[in-house]
Amino acid sequence: MLDKTKLRGADFITSIGLMLFGVWILFQTFKMPMKDTYGGVINVWYVSPALFPLFIGTGIILLAINILIHAIKNGGFQAFKESLQSKKGIHLTEKGYRFLAILVPLLSLVYMNLPRIDFFLSILLFLLFFITVFYFDDFLLLKKLLGFYSIEMGILLLLFLTGMDTILTKAFRYSLDILALGLITALYIFLRIQIRGQNEYTRKLRNAFMISLLTPLILVPTFRFFLRVPLPKEGGIVDLLFILYYAFR
Amino acid sequence: MTVFQALVSFFGYLGTILSSPTTLLLLFGSTILGIIFGALPGLTATLGVALLTTLTYSLDTGPALVSLLGIYVGAVYGGSYGSIMINIPGTAAAAATALDGYPKALRGEAGVAIGLTTTASFLGTIVGMLFVVVFTPIISFLALQFTSFEFFLLAFFGILISGSISTPDLVQKGWIAGFFGLFLAVVGRDPLQFYPRFTLGLPQLEGGIEVVPVLIGAFGIPQIIQVLKDRFVTAKAQQVGRVIPSWNKIMHNIPHIIRSALIGVGIGAVPGIGEDIAAWVSYGTAKNTSKHPEIYGTGCDEGIIASETANNACIGGAMIPLLSLGIPGSPPAAMLLGALLLHGIAPGPMLHVEQPTFVFQVSAILLMASAAMYICGILLAPQVVKLLRVPPALFMPIVAVLCLIGSYALGLKIFNLYLMVPIGIIAYYMGELGYPIPPLVIGVILGTMADENLRRALMVSQGSFLPFVTRPVALILLIVILLTVITSTSTFKTFKAKWTAKRSRS
Questions:
Q1: Which of B221, B398, B458 to mutate: most A Cβ within 10 Å?
Q2: Alpha helices in B56-94, H assignment, sequence order
Q3: Quick check: A8 and A83 in contact, CB under 8 A?
Q4: What is the Rg, in whole angstroms, of the alpha carbon atoms belonging to chain B?
């Protein structure tokens, strides 16, 4: 949690945001049938679908006003003004970079890779970056790795936005998986180059790679074959595991 | 159901567990997993229950419940390992244990400290279990007399009290978190008229927001961000030595144990209040009532016993409102509620009518889980402690993957993940800004109950609010709600402070 002075500054702006959110709830609520007919049913106010959201919206607005008043009384507006004045340009701290190093892989995995790239490869790519970036515990390396990974994700984003992925998949079913495999290899080579000659980091990379590989190797059979859960995208590697599973079964 | 039938049901289920090697394997496996989850800093009991919910989804209700309660009990106990060995609590529930556990370990008595926590946790769980057996049927019976008016007020009270107690800053923030949870609960087609509410035109939202992905997101993602962002460093663990079960010391501390267990059960029964608060309140009470408060914090047995008995007794306490009213008493219990709903069991007053033996099944599982925890704790503690050396950077990314696949696997909807991640990020920021997460979760769970019962109640009364004050239980609940709100206002607090000052002067 933030310290008290910063907190009151943050309270000032979040309470305004919450008030607007409450107003939006009420605005949407007033569009709901209150006393008029909906689907052939004549409404009375107390069975209206708007009743409870009305209660929620009003509650949020009142509480947000309360927090706003408290924030203003305790120097929240002043703290907010000072924080605005002290911010000149975007300057990311180490914590900021670490936060980005969490968000970039998480968001790219969920919104981009999982629905389109083989589950096994998506997880491997995600883990290889996500583990190494924090396991090395080296800020300079974190920045370089984050930059490299962002470029990789940028390439994928470009493909998906331009619709090239559909064309590639039509040409060859596993083309995106091959691309993902290429990105994993590129990331691994990039890591090897960055940590060249540092024994401790080489050991860490070996551990990280083993864990990144073992995790989907355990998860995919567990979920796909044991729990019978169809994976979000079953591509080349999952198909290969299918062949192996039925060959040995 | 007669006492004899209850006993037959309880011992019958104990026999079923003991005679099935698979169930025993599940019990011990999940308890060990729970201890590991609790021991590793950054992983919590709630997250453990959440992730295991997915893996046990395909099992029958009995074995699934064995696994979930096993991991719950194990994780609440396992948190003490980090507290004692490296002075970093594995879970928030074990933070109070570090105050005396770590100094004891520094004196070379880590084995004794773990022995004490193991025995205290075992007894705490047993006391909690006894309360589940005795009080759940009584409360269920009383709740059967409740109508929609009482259920609406009960749900609302649950959110308010959870917001009031769990907030780290202003009480209004706790309540706003609860209201945000209520908002998430009303998204989707309204159950009475099928009108789409806040669906933003997305067909995926028409069925409403699924509870389990919200819970996994709200508890899992902030934990991952916090641990990795704040550069969590592992510390060198103390030597454990032999873990000694401390029955003699425990016998000398029976009054402490009874008091701590009662505090644990009592706090556990309050909606949304978790094991951490139970442990702190118990530790504080033990210190304040002690003849030698100066020894607390130096490695005294009483301090360890107070926090560890209370946090494990809280499990039973949290199960009472969950089973009797459908209101979870703690965050892991909220997750457990989600799991029960997935298995087609709807906790609440009707549970005791539809499945009268269920409470005794749960009690039998709790008893077995505490026994498994005791055995594993005594035998495996030195091995589990070795895991404390594993840096979170290695296991937190795996937890992230488990959260994702867990949310996806329950409904086979990628949309669940699209919701889970932003909810997790919002929950993280809420935590940073002093908004507690438990009321949000309680709001999501109780939202539908509050919405339906409010409208049903008003339908019965033809739009009149009068029954809220003419029905005795509703009136009591209303008064309690008003008192909760009034006593939380700054005006009341200022008045109270002035009055106390005036009294002390006179």
A1: B398
A2: 61-86
A3: no
A4: 22
Place of tokens 């979000």: A232
Residues 444-463 of B with CB under 8 A from A: 450-451, 454-455, 458-459, 462-463
Gap from A149 CA to chain B (nearest CA, Å): 16
Closest-CA residue to B446 (of B341, B351, B373): B341
The helix (H) or strand (E) run that includes residue B226 is: helix B211-229
What the block records as the tokens of B184 is 């998430």
**Whole-angstrom distance, CA of residue B194 vs CA of residue A176:** 42
Distances (CA, A) of B77 to B83, B117, B173, B305, B369: 11, 8, 30, 12, 11
DSSP state, residue A41: E
Rg (C-alpha) for chain A, rounded Å, is 26
Contact residues, chain B, for A223 at CB < 8 Å = 405, 409
**Residue A107 touches partner B, C-beta closer than 8 Å:** yes
How far apart (Å, rounded) are the C-alpha atoms in residues B335 and B272? 11
The answer to whether the beta carbons of residues B300 and B283 sit under 8 Å apart is: no
Distance spanning both ends of chain B, measured CA to CA = 57
> From the list B170, B225, B230, which residue is nearest A67 (CB)?
B170
Cβ-Cβ pairs closer than 8 A, A with B, add up to: 160
- What type of residue sits at position A159? L
Nearest CB neighbour to A219, from listed B401, B418, B450: B401
A135–B391 CB contact, under 8 Å: yes
- Provide, as residue numbers in chain B, all residues whose Cβ is less than 8 Å from the Cβ of A11: 170, 433-434
ipTM here: 0.92
Cβ density class B83-122: b for 16+ within 10 Å, e for less: bbbbbbbbbbbbbbbbbbbbbbbeeebbbbbbbbbbbbbb
Q: Is A131 close to B394, i.e. CB distance below 8 A?
A: yes
Q: What H or E segment, with its residue span, contains residue A42?
A: strand A41-42
- Domain ranges across chain B: 3-488
Report how far residue A245's alpha carbon sits from residue A231's, in angstroms, rounded to the nearest whole number. Answer: 16
Query: SS3 for B42?
Result: coil
Instruction: Give chain B's count of helices (H) and strands (E).
Output: 22, 2
Beta-sheet pairing, B196-197 with A37-38? unpaired
How distant is the Cα of B145 from the closest Cα of chain A, in angstroms? 23
B36 burial type by CB count under 10 A (0-12 exposed, 13-18 middle, 19+ buried)? buried
Which one-letter DSSP state was computed for residue B326?
A: S
Contacts of residue B372, defined as CB under 8 A and 6 or more positions apart, other chains included, come to B27, B28, B31, B70, B73, B74
Q: How far apart are CA B425 and CA B443, in angstroms?
A: 18
Residuewise pLDDT in 10s, chain B (506 residues):
677 887 888 888 888 888 889 999 999 999 999 998 888 877 788 888 888 888 888 888 889 999 999 999 999 999 888 888 887 777 778 888 888 888 888 888 888 888 889 999 999 999 999 999 888 888 888 888 888 898 899 888 888 888 888 888 888 999 999 999 999 999 999 888 888 999 988 888 988 888 888 888 888 898 889 888 877 666 666 677 777 766 777 888 888 889 999 999 988 888 777 788 888 889 888 888 888 888 888 888 888 999 999 999 999 999 999 998 888 888 888 888 888 888 888 888 888 888 888 889 999 999 999 999 999 988 888 888 788 778 888 888 998 998 898 888 877 889 989 999 999 999 999 999 999 988 898 899 889 889 989 999 998 888 888 999 999 889 998 999 999 888 887 788 888 888 888 888 77
